[in-house]
Amino acid sequence: MSRSLKKGPYINLDLLKKIEGKKPNDTPSIKTWARNSTIAPEMVGFTFGVHNGMKHIDVLVTEDMVGHHLGEFSSSKKFLRHGGKMQKELEQKKKDSEIAAAKAAKAAPAAKKK
After folding, report:
1. What distance in Å separates the CA atoms of residue 98 and residue 28, rounded to the nearest whole number?
2. pLDDT in tens, 19-77
3. Residue 68: which CATH number?
4. Quick one: 33 and 85 in the same domain?
5. For 23, which of 9, 80, 88, 93 is 20 to 30 Å away at the CA?
């Protein structure tokens, strides 16, 4: 649910103070924990280090991002893989092909020596 139009968008004032009077190209990454802060047009071009719960993810703000929240561009969940029988079969095929490629690479220099 979006914020009321009467209140306006939430923009962290500390972020605006940090970028005030600075040029985007000269400023290093600005670390922030304010994932819920809305991206304002003044922030375009700056790089923000948005905290995802474990580390800061660098986010370069572009014009398309204006109106969105900083947290949308710093994922806090890590996708590992889908499970199940089919995934295990795919992983086994990949492992077998890597072993075959390693054996072929090992056999190739031996054939050249003869």
Report:
1. 41
2. 999 998 888 999 999 999 999 999 999 999 999 999 999 999 999 999 999 999 999 99
3. 3.30.860.10
4. no
5. 9
